[in-house]
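G., the chain you wanted modeled:
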Amino acid sequence: MKANTKILLIEDDQGSREALLMLLRATGYTMTGCGSGEEGLRLLKAEGFNIVITDLFLPDRNGIDILTQVKQSAPGTEVIMITGHASAETAVKAMKEGAFDYITKPLNIDELRIIVDKAVEKVALRSENIYLKKQLRDKYEFANIIGNSQPMQQLFSRMKKIIKTDSTVLILGESGTGKELVAKAIHFNGPRREKPFIAVNCSAIPENLLESELFGHTKGAFTGAVKEKMGKFEAANQGTIFLDEIGTLPMHLQTKLLRVLQEQEVERVGSNRPIKLDVRVVSATNVNLEEEVLRGNFREDLFYRLNVIPVVIPPLRERIDDILPLTKHFLEKNCRAMQRPMMHLDKEALEALEAYPWNGNVRELENIMERIVALTDGDVITLHDLPSNIEKNFQERGGAPTNVTPNGVDMVAAISEIERRMINDALQLSGGVKARAAAMLSINRTTLVEKMRRLGIPLS
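Predicted structure as tokens:
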């Protein structure tokens, strides 16, 4: 890390400058020195530095001026001030202007090294934070969400409009469809991307702790509240809070949540002091909230507050075109993780996956692909490598995906596939005797032969 850290030393005294350059180079840093403020600013603009160490009093520039210009042109650069004219006033002013630290002459070299090391650590943490945030943004770009089908393209189109607003969003979809993924994509592609994204699963937190978890509490608010705690809403301030399984929220907390949405403020448990918030609320549910309202289990006014912009994620069985690209993605991911050659599906295995109803949706598909990569020996995945329920479903349906989806279905191809499988099964059971196979299928022998020719089944 030290060798990659570039430090600029601005010191007008040549002897002091050369001594400091030598000492810090010996520590492992990449050092550049100059004797004037103007030369220092020129070098900073031309080469860029992680840290600037500058004397407060230079022949042509005041160190505070240099600090101000550095913070304007390179806000990620840390500045350490050195002076032989120490005073509390100049120290305070330097720190207010954004100096990392302040050290006086005569210099204590060990103290300077410690300050420089701390500044380097801060720069490294900032760079890592920027890198991780970029990774998050890249991960949740719309282009990285797999969905070539028409229903998913319609969803992406809606999401692109949503990110331009700050409205409350309600994501609707079955379990396993990727509701949190959509919520993150809305956040990380919108204007709040640099601010927190806080996810809360309302069904996973015990009811007696949920209020404190969401809204925070004061010290002594209840037994066990030994210190003050910030709630999830406060933690999400200026960012986005994602309330998953919102339909499980108890009625008394629905009332409190409604007030938070209306007033844009929260009160911690045990306090009557309102805390102003600027939070975008995205919620999700796999239940029909309108029906829950009619049953008296969910507040109607809260439903309308949450349902400003509804987003419906289609179940996997309605987006069959996405099964192949999703499967390839999960296979590649797990093969890489388990350090084995890339695996792929044969035609029959893919047809079986496309014929399966996927009650667990994308999450179920992902889990199955992980299991297959872990347990299958070969690189080609066949029908028999799939879980028994998928294989059984495929065989019971005649081996072809016959469910009609919004994308439509190739009925002629599906019927042909069913005929092919039934004829092959009958021929196998009859020992290849066509007359017996035809009888099993309740057709005459000539019809069987015609079908075999049409379907490309060998006659002998």
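The longest strand covers residues 78-83.

Shout if anything looks off.
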